[in-house]
Amino acid sequence: MPLPRLILTSGEPAGIGPELCLAAAARQWSCDLIVACDQALIEQRARQVHADIRFAPYTPGAARQEHVPGTMRLLHSPLANAAYPGRLDASNAHYVLQLLDAAIDGCSRREFDAIVTAPVQKSVINDAGIAFSGHTEYLAERAGGAHPVMMLATKKLRVALATTHLPLSTVSGAITAELLERVLIILDHDLRDRFALPAPRILVCGLNPHAGESGHLGREEIEVIEPVLRRLCKSGMRLIGPAPADTAFTPHMLAQADAVLAMYHDQGLPVIKYADFGAAVNVTLGLPFIRTSVDHGTALDLAGTGKADPGSLYAAIEMAIEMAAKARRRQRTAPDRTLPAR
Question: In the chain, what are the domains?
Fold first, then answer.
């Protein structure tokens, strides 16, 4: 089976992304690991954090080779202006998106088997006049308008989101039957397809306290969530809920599930980050390519100090390798991956 090739984008140049990439380059990986970054930036950051890494240019079309610890195959993309740790510069916003574009284009050519992303700073991209709500939405748009589903995963817990980066005041209106059905179909499909779970069990949270308390604390469960779950269960999905979010994450409930679907960002993600912060992986489901990422931000205050914890990036790379290997095994009988009908 061919060696998986991953593209690792270095993210916000003023953040910890470049030095996380250096930490990754120092380790052994069972893949061909390519890093997308400005060459002068990564070399300067290596000197700053005393990383002994040998750099070599990567040319698209080059033969695959297993990663050698202490080396970095570099896909160079030039900065607009020199970047300094902790100092955001909106003129470099387009550079951050160029890294993602190179990764997406490479996946579309099957040059890369997966994308792993270091963190970006959404605020500085918006300050540059670019409408950007996050990696997840940008990747989906570039993938032709795919519907992305954000999931954080550890070795013990998977939490997906029905909605992502929305103000809390708009969440109820966003959770329609159509949206919820689409998210659950994608989640069920990708748990089977990319995590090799033949019959995934999905625990679905309610939106309101006590899952609406039979309509006394809100009717979204009765009018939207429950009908969707009944309909999809009849089609063969294994769905549990809607469950009160304050008990959904208890050991007894989690023992019955392979993944939890939370209705909004801060309903589910604080739990998994508390349980295993620094070891969780952000996975984007519903895309025509594999994408994993860290579970944290750019940590501008730590940039350039060499003190940033690379644990989440290591976990993201490991998960991407596993997912890419499974995808390659599937391609022996089904060369083209198609998403379920919306």
Answer: 1-147+290-342 (3.40.718.10), 149-285 (3.40.718.10)
